[in-house]
Structures are given as structure tokens and as C-alpha cells.
Amino acid sequence: MQNYYNFTVSASQISYNPYWYEKSNIILKSVLGILVLTAGFALSHLHNFKIGFILSILISAVLVFNGIYKFRIKNKTTFIFDKTDGAFYKITQLGKKKIISLNNVSDIISKSRSMNYHYSLLSVDNTRIKKIKLTADIKNENRTNPEVRFLEMEIIPQLESFLNLDNKTAIVFDDKYCSSI
Q1: How many CB atoms lie within 10 A of CB 81?
Q2: Which residues of the chain have pLDDT under 70?
Q3: How many CB atoms lie within 10 A of CB 60?
Q4: Pairing verdict, β 95-101 and 87-92
Q5: Element housing 101 (H / E)
Q6: N or C: which end of the chain has fewer CB within 10 A?
Q7: Axis-axis angle for helices 26-46, 50-72 (nearest 10)
């Protein structure tokens, strides 16, 4: 069996790379950045439109840096659920960041849109409800891909079991945080 998402499981930890198969399109974004820069340069010389050149520099920089970010950082992101620390971590090349405490996790939900969907972790503490995106957007037509099947048949059920989410808990609203209608 292939090791999709670089998924590893132990008694005290689960880790996986949520964006491992997502393409960064760094070449496409760089080419678009060069085309926008060229168009801005042409506009500035043909119509004496100096602000167009400045705008094209800004748009080109955003496109190129977005491509580099997805290629170098986002695609190498790792999520770690650690029972020993009782925390959920996001590890990138920029460092390790604690996202939430595992005590606050209440459910894993699927958020669906018209053409795609993704899985989110629902965290509830005393004052707020927080949704943390666990996967990249999955196109509806890709549901039969082996990567998506592995996510839905292996990773999500093992996460639910690891976090003891098998028994569904109801969200109870406390009247001190709710207002009357």
C-alpha cells in the first residue's frame, strides 16, 4: 500500500501532510507575473501611465511570492496530533506552532461547496467555536482518486478514533453566553 499524505500513526501521535499532492503552479504564476509586468511596462511607455507599471510590479510580486510560498512552505506543512502534549501542531519550514489543545476538539466535519469540499476540525472552548481546515479543497469529481479514498477511509476515521470522537457529543449552549430573542 502506498503511503499517501506521509501518514504515520503511533499510540501517542498522528501526523500527516495535508497538502502533499496539491500542485503549487510556480511556473504558471511566474509566467503570469512576467506577462503582467510586461503589460504594465508597455502601458507606462505607450500611454504615459506610470501607475500602471507600479501596479503591475505589485501584482507580479504577489503572483511570484504566492507560487514560492505554496511550493516551499505550504506543500511541506505537517499536522501533528500529540497526546503526550495534548496539543495539535502545525509544522512548516518557518517553525512549529501549537494550534489548539486536544481537550477542546469536539468533532471533524465536512464543509461542502458547489464544486469541492474539505474537512475541518471543530474546536469549542468557553467563549468561541473555531474551525480549523484539516485538508486542502477536494474537487467533487476527484472522490474516486486513491489519495482522496485514503483520506476518507484511513486518515479521518483514525483521527476520530485517536481524538475519541466516535461518541458524538452535543453542543450545549449556556444561557450566560446567549441572548434572548
Answers
A1: 23
A2: 1-2, 21, 166-181
A3: 21
A4: antiparallel
A5: strand 95-101
A6: C
A7: 170
H/E/C letters for each residue in 51-71? HHHHHHHHHHHHHHHHHHHHH
pLDDT in tens, 66-103: 988 888 888 889 999 999 999 999 999 889 999 999 98
120/108 Cα distance (integer angstroms): 6
pLDDT on residue 83: 93
**What residue type is 113 in one-letter code?**
R
The dihedral region occupied by 147, where left means phi > 0, alpha psi between -120 and 50, and beta the remainder, is: alpha
CB 80 within 8 A of CB 91: yes
β-partners of residue 63 are: none
Q: Which residues, other chains included, contact 52 with Cβ-Cβ below 8 Å and sequence gap of 6+?
A: 40, 43, 44
Q: Return phi, psi of residue 8, to 5°.
A: -130, 145
Output the nine-digit C-alpha cell for 109.
466535519
Task: Please spell the DSSP secondary structure of 132-168, one letter per residue.
Answer: EE-S--EEGGGTTSHHHHHIIIIIHHHHHHHTT-SS-
Helix (H) or strand (E) run with residue 150 in it: helix 146-150
Amino acid (one-letter) located at 138? I
Give tens-digit pLDDT for 122-134: 888 878 888 989 9
Please tell me the pTM assigned to this model: 0.76
